[in-house]
Amino acid sequence: MDAQKHDEIMQFIMNKLEEEKLSLSDGISIWHSMGLFIFSQLDKENKDISKIYSDIREYLDQMEKTQKN
């Protein structure tokens, strides 16, 4: 997934969250659940939660580096 596609998907999700008038805690819960689901699909054989969180952290680190460049 390139940066443009990533941004489009994230903007779509943010717009949906705004339309529903969710509270901040509801939004955070949705993001967390969605992240766990998406990252659990990367390695369907390994459902270890610590591995999933590790993959999420690695992804976020890569996104942060991309934003800095």
Question: How would you characterize the overall build of this protein?
Answer:
The protein is an all-alpha fold. It is built from 3 helices and no strands. The chain has helices at 3-19, 24-40, 49-68. Helix 2 crosses helix 3 (49-68). The longest helix is centred in the C-terminal third of the chain and has 20 residues, at 49-68. The model has no long low-confidence stretch (mean pLDDT 81).
List the keywords.
69 residues, mainly alpha, 3 helices
List the helices and strands and how they pair.
Blueprint: H1 3-19, H2 24-40, H3 49-68
Helix pairs in contact: 2-3
Short overview:
By secondary structure, the protein is mostly helical.
Q: State the order of secondary-structure elements, H for helix, E for strand.
A: HHH
Q: How many helical elements?
A: 3
Please give the share of residues in helix.
Answer: over 70%
Strand content: under 5%
- What is the gyration radius calculated from CA atoms? 13 Å
Give the overall silhouette. globular
Mean pLDDT, as a whole number?
A: 81
Number of strands: 0
User: Structural class from helices and strands?
Assistant: mainly alpha
**Whole-Å distance between the termini?**
17 Å
- Which blocks of ≥5 consecutive residues have pLDDT under 50? none
Sheet having the most strands: none
